[in-house]
Amino acid sequence: MKAVVENTGDTTIENINWDINITSTGLGFVLFGHKTGTIESLEPGDTVTVPSTIGRLLPPTIGFGKVNITVNVEGNTATATAFIAGMFFLSVKQT
């Protein structure tokens, strides 16, 4: 589970709060489906992947079944659906 955040503006942005939530939509289950963090600084035109590699590993998101994924970065929200099998996300589709 990760998202790419891009600064499309003309100024450096600091202290950018983000969160990712993964919830089951049916009979499946999700463990550790909530991640949060802060990007310290992002220069104009730069991108950053959240969470970082270590953030994705400790603890990993685990589950089985259909899920909804919601990514929120400072009030900007994106959503997707997917199927999770263990630690693997399959058929991710942005909605």
Description:
The chain has a single domain, classed as Immunoglobulin-like. The protein is elongated, with a radius of gyration of 14 Å. The longest helix is centred in the middle third of the chain and has 5 residues. Strands 2, 3, 4, 6, 7 and 8 form a six-stranded antiparallel beta sheet that branches. It is mostly beta strands and 95 residues long. It starts with a strand and ends with a strand. The protein contains one helix and eight strands.
Question: Any chance you could write out the topology, listing elements then pairs?
Answer:
Blueprint: E1 3-6, E2 13-24, E3 29-31, E4 34-42, E5 47-50, H1 53-57, E6 62-73, E7 76-86, E8 88-94
Antiparallel strand pairs: 1-5, 2-4, 2-6, 3-6, 6-7, 7-8
Helical/strand content category: mainly beta
The CATH topology: Immunoglobulin-like
Write down the CATH class.
Mainly Beta
Q: DSSP strand (E) fraction?
A: over 45%
CATH architecture: Sandwich
Radius of gyration equals: 14 Å
Order of helices and strands: EEEEEHEEE
Note poorly predicted spans.
none
- The helix content, as a percent range, equals under 10%
Largest sheet report: 6 strands, antiparallel
Estimate the global geometry from the Cα principal axes. Answer: elongated
